[in-house]
């Protein structure tokens, strides 16, 4: 709300007030309900018209001081009347401000929902975005933070992150918000330092949450594309047990490539790893063996340590895998097929789900 200078406040805001004050002073009565309601209504109107609360109060005090010599009773009744009037005006003013804030929050929430779901006309969306400091004709990237708890924009965690970003990038254009319990930061694609700082602050504020940063995408639909990419990375982190605090979609492009043809990946997993189901205890222990082996750079001693096995027991498992699948994990020719199949199994949830 813009604030209008005090000298521009119309006399209509205080004219009837002088009459009420004179009557209260003369009779010693309190203001009636209708009189209080009228003062509240004027306070609301003043706020809607853009006048500041200080100016409205000063106008009432000035009018009371000018009328003071004409009051026909003791000062106590007059002062009580002034107090009631100003209290009612302030109440109305604050009520109007709360309503304006709620309207602004509703408009902001609606804009963010439309932006992240792509439900609005892109041209109209771009016009609305400028109100919130975004120029959708440029490329934008989205970072999404997920923690143990659910967060919204009023949460102390969200405010802490926002304050840290404003303190460092006060002159930059970015939008901090929330969606489905996650914190989001939307920034121009060339301002990666903003997203990196958001990731750092969000990781600390959420006590070790995880942050995914989508790639910068151009145009009005770029925000929703980057947002969906960041969400996919968080989902991938769960399935692949990726525990890095910050994950960049650009560094994980191999995974969407591998799952682009889901049926082909399912066929690879079935053909390569299904024989492990015949092992005692099922496929999972041997699948964990392969995962540890590949994650440790194919170093048997390190993989055995990760699984709390002796090297001998671990190498026995590798041999068991070779006999069941016909593929030798230590053979470079077979290793790529096995590793790709293991990644596919983790992405598709095998062997706990049907392919």
From TrEMBL:
UniProt xrefs under Gene3D superfamilies: PucR C-terminal helix-turn-helix domain
Residue stretches making up the CdaR GGDEF-like domain: 118-235
Domain annotation PucR C-terminal helix-turn-helix: ranges: 286-342
Pfam families to which the protein is assigned, alphabetical: GGDEF_2, HTH_30
Origin superkingdom: Bacteria
InterPro entries linked: CdaR-like_regulators, CdaR_GGDEF, PucR_C-HTH_dom, PucR_C-HTH_sf
Family: Belongs to the CdaR family.
Full protein name: PucR family transcriptional regulator
Upper taxonomic lineage: Bacteria, Bacillati, Actinomycetota, Actinomycetes, Kitasatosporales
């Amino acid at each position: 709300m813009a604030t209008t200078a005090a000298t521009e406040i119309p006399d209509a805001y205080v004219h009837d007030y002088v009459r009420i004050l004179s009557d209260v002073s003369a009779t010693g009565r309190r203001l009636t309900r209708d009189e209080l309601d009228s003062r509240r209504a004027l306070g609301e109107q003043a706020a809607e018209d853009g006048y500041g609360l200080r100016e409205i109060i000063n106008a009432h005090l000035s009018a009371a001081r000018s009328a003071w010599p004409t009051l026909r009773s003791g000062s106590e009744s007059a002062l009580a009347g002034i107090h009631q009037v100003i209290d009612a005006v302030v109440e109305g003013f604050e009520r109007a401000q709360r309503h304006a804030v709620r309207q602004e929050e509703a408009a902001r929430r609606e804009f963010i929902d439309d932006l992240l779901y792509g439900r609005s006309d892109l041209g109209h969306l771009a016009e609305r975005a400028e109100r919130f400091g975004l120029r959708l004709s440029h490329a934008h990237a989205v970072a999404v933070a997920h923690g143990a708890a659910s967060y919204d924009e009023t949460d102390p965690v969200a405010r802490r992150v926002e304050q840290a970003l404003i303190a460092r990038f006060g002159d930059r254009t970015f939008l901090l918000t929330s969606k489905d319990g996650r914190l989001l930061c939307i920034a121009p694609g060339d301002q990666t330092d903003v997203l990196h700082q958001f990731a750092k602050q969000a990781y600390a504020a959420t006590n070790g949450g995880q942050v995914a940063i989508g790639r910068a995408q151009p145009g009005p639909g770029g925000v929703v594309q980057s947002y969906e990419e960041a969400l996919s990375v968080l989902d991938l982190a769960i399935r692949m047990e990726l525990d890095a605090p910050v994950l960049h979609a650009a560094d994980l492009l191999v995974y969407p490539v591998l799952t682009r043809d889901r049926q082909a990946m399912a066929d690879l997993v079935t053909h390569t790893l299904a024989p492990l189901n015949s092992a005692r205890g099922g496929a999972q222990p041997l699948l964990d063996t392969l995962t540890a082996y590949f994650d440790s750079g194919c170093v048997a001693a390190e993989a055995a340590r990760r699984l709390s096995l002796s090297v001998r027991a671990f190498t026995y498992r590798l041999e068991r895998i070779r006999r069941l699948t016909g593929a030798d994990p230590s053979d470079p020719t077979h290793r790529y097929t096995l590793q790709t199949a293991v990644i596919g199994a983790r992405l598709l949830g095998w062997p706990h789900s049907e392919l």
